Input
Amino acid sequence: MRVLKSEPEIGLVIPCYNEEDVLGSLVERLNRLRAESRFKIKILFVNDGSSDRTRDMLQQICTEHRHISCIHFSRNFGHQAAVSAGLMHVKGDAAVVLDADLQDPPEVVPAMVEKWLEGYDVVYGVRCKRKEGVLLKASYFLFYRIMKKIVPFNVPLDAGDFALVDRRVINAINQLPEKTRFVRGLRGWVGYKQIGLPYERDSRQAGDSKYSYLKLFKLALDGIIAYSTVPLKIGIWIGAGSAVSGLCYFLYVIYSKLVMDSNPSGWASLASIILVLGGVQLLVLGIIGEYIGRIFDEVKARPAYIIETTVGDDA
Ligand code: UDP
Ligand code: MG
Output
């Protein structure tokens, strides 16, 4: 059981990028949640450089509601940067990160808070039913399973950024200095008492997903490369494999020459070997390049985002 000194305050962190179509119903549902809640709830929007009416709408919402604040980025820095900024600025004893598009239903928040009161430091939503396309579902399925296999700490399966995090966890995540931020990885890495809470992930209420396949692929790469060096070791295994098969083939060539008096012929086999090995070498170089690119980004040590202005008491 968690011992609290006073009435707990929960901060909701909501990254938004061009979400004008959904903001109205989002604020309505959040306000309903707040009215029905027995805890103090504050809301912090992070406007990730939206180019539609999101910015103006958020300004208006913040002036109408004292419990809502907002951070405006100077340009679009990406979802993970927006979540990081939200965690850096949010106040309260715990925070819940949720998407603006109502895919993460705000109505799940009270159940998360209950688990937190039981003593858990991280309560992450586990998507038990996805309402996305088959290809996307299969990609997510595969990604989380690969991640689980190669990352040296517990990565919950099918859990995204939707989660409640205790103040201790927020402080720990905020201390981590990396600029390429994969928040659900950082959240797993810091440890503490974590538990999953199954929920049904709704489909997007309005507007389009801001993640193209390419962006999702990049996020998956960030996730794997930031937490594991296993891909770097692929070269060793492929190299060892091809060296052993090369040796076997060499022995076979000698054997056929000496015993059977025949020369293995054909440039086709030679060409395929060169092509395959050339391809593998480039692939491994590419993997090393991905790591070097990220080292380069980290060494420059530029911040993950720039804040243009903040609105409200809690931003
Ligand atoms: N988002 C953001 N910056 C971006 C892309 C997305 O802040 O560059 C926000 C977006 O407004 C939403 C959340 O991140 O609240 C998740 O994005 P989206 O719904 O497009 O992703 P999906 O659910 O399709 O993975
Ligand atoms: Mg979404």
About this structure: The beta strands are 9-16, 40-47, 68-73, 94-97, 122-129, 159-166, 194-200, 307-311.
